[in-house]
Structure formats: structure tokens, C-alpha cells
Amino acid sequence: xxxxxxxxxxxxxxxxxxxxxxxxxxxxxxxxxxxxxxxxxxxxxxxxxxxxxxxxxxxxxxxxxxxxxxxxxxxxxxxxxxxxxxxxxxxxxxxxxxxxxxxxxxxxxxxxxxxxxxxxxxxxxxxxxxxxxxxxxxxxxxxxxxxxxxxxxxxxxxxxxxxxxxxxxxxxxxxxxxxxxxxxxxxxxxxxxxxxxxxxxxxxxxxxxxxxxxxxxxxxxxxxxxxxxxxxxxxxxxxxxxxxxxxxxxxxxxxxxxxxxxxxxxxxxxxxxxxx
Length: 276
Description:
eight-stranded antiparallel β-sheet; 13 strands; three-stranded antiparallel β-sheet
């Protein structure tokens, strides 16, 4: 009995079936990844209905960002086990890429939030804000006086990023201990810190509560006068210093090349004076 002839497709018809360009089929044929079933008497390539399934699989794998080499290796030894192993390897790779993209997204979100904070800051005005508790990660090295060695901040900054595995785009702040703050030694930085984003219990918990906040605009050399104003205003408003000072830099070298545009945010934990 004569066997029923298998349905065939020209290159154009096969490409149209899958919604792709003919050039894609020509390329896969050229690199021997997927070849036509044969060549007709008039010299034209043709594909058969039985090739629809395998080619659909190839396109699905390409859609999942599988490389040509990976697909070729899979088709050499196509099996359920091979598919599972390949999918498991690709899953691990994709998970890592997603985690990297999530970190990049978080950094961009932080840049938007922090920069907007600096742009909208009312420099020189002291406000009392109720801040939530948050976890901070502190540098292991202490800085000390910047007057004696201004470069030390940057040296410890670089080491701190390496310690934490952080990107250079992460926002690093400085801590001035309460005793140095009350003694007017504003250049005596205790250590650096970053926020522990996405980690609930990492780092050290900074207590929530009332904080006196001021923004300084301009060169860092002008910070002592801003600190003097902050401390004087804290006393005038009937508050007492109740913790360290935290310097943050919403607009700094990353955002601007002009020091006059720099913005430094200073937050100090305070408490009401007795009978205040």
C-alpha cells in the first residue's frame, strides 16, 4: 500500500508558520543547527510537518535565552533527563541574574530617593523629626580627626565597601560620637555606616525616636558653623542631645562636580529637657 505523502513547506511558508524571517532559517541551516528536510528538484529547500515540533522546541529554548551551543548540545542527546539538567542549570543562572538586577534596581531607587531629599532640602533650617528604628552596618575601622588626615575618610570608605561587598554607588554616612559632638569636635568622625537594606536583623539597630535634623549646603569646610547652629537651636527649642550625630550626603561627588551644590544631612538623637 502506498504511504501517504508528508506535508511539506517552502522556506517562506515554514517561516510564516512560526512568525519569523526566512533569514533565521537560512542562518540555522548555515550553522547546522536546524536544516531543511531536503532540496526539491528545482533547487529550493523544503521543510516537513514532522519538523514543526523540533523547531518549535528550538524557538522556545531561544526565547528562554539559551545559547546556540547549549541548544546544539541538547539536540545531540535529547532526553527528559537532559532537558531537566539543562533547565536546572539555566534556572540557577537566571536566579543569579535576577538577584543582580534586583540589587541594581534597589540602588537606582536609593539614588532617586536620596537625591530628591537633597534637592528639596531647606538648608540651615532645624526640624525635629520622629524617625523609625533602623539597622545600620558600621565600619570596623575608626576614622578620628579629619583635620590631621583628610584622606583617611576615603581610605576607610574604600575598605568599608570591600568589607561589605557594596557597590561604589551605595550611600555611606559618617558618625560623630555624642561626646565629640558636645565638645564641638565635629571633625572627629567615629566610623562610617550604611543602611542594611532588605535585611531585617543585620547590623546594629539605631534607636528610633526624636531627631534634630539640619541640611548643610556647600563645601564640607562650612560644616562646623552648621553644627554650631544645630546645637544652639536644639538648646533654644528645649531639647537635649541624646545620641550620636549621623552625617549623610544626599548630593555629593556622585551627583555634582560643583562643591557649592553639595548637600549634607545631619541627624542627632534628642530628648526633651526636664520640665521642657
